[in-house]
Design brief:
There is one protein chain. The protein is mainly beta and 122 residues long. The protein is built from no helices and eleven strands. Strands 2, 4, 5, 6, 9, 10 and 11 form a seven-stranded mixed sheet that branches. A four-stranded antiparallel sheet has the order 1-3-8-7, with no helix packed on it.
């Protein structure tokens, strides 16, 4: 069973940056894709970004391309989401995700963390 723990969320002004981190344990995460999904109040969960186990291939939601960057740590059990030029509309609970094998450009990942809150003020 994979256990994921996120950190790095917080309150930031529009135009600012945040870096989310996720550390995984309990599985062979060097064979897992990892990613991020988010859920804003009153809205459905949505895909944000994902990376293959090596970090060599990445995918992004159109709404975050050019502003968010996902990466994998050297140990492969970590993933990071660098978020720049933040806008109030990205305010949401951000979840770290993982699944064996290939990336899922969607929200039905096998494993999900508890989430870290990102709030962008205008």
């Amino acid at each position: 069973q994979v256990h994921l723990v996120e950190s790095g969320g917080g309150l930031v002004q529009a135009g600012g940056s945040l870096r989310l981190s996720c550390v995984g344990s309990g599985g062979t995460l060097n064979t897992h894709a990892m990613g991020w999904i988010r859920q804003a109040p009153g809205k459905e969960r949505e895909f944000v970004a994902a990376a293959t186990w090596s970090g060599g291939n990445t995918y992004y939601a159109d709404s975050v391309k050019g502003r968010f960057t996902i990466s994998r740590g050297i140990a492969s059990n970590t993933t990071y989401l660098q978020m720049n030029a933040l806008r109030p509309e990205v305010t949401a609970l951000y979840y770290c995700t993982a699944r064996p094998g290939a990336i899922l450009v969607g929200v039905q990942w096998d494993f999900l963390g508890q989430g870290t809150q990102v709030t962008v003020s205008s």
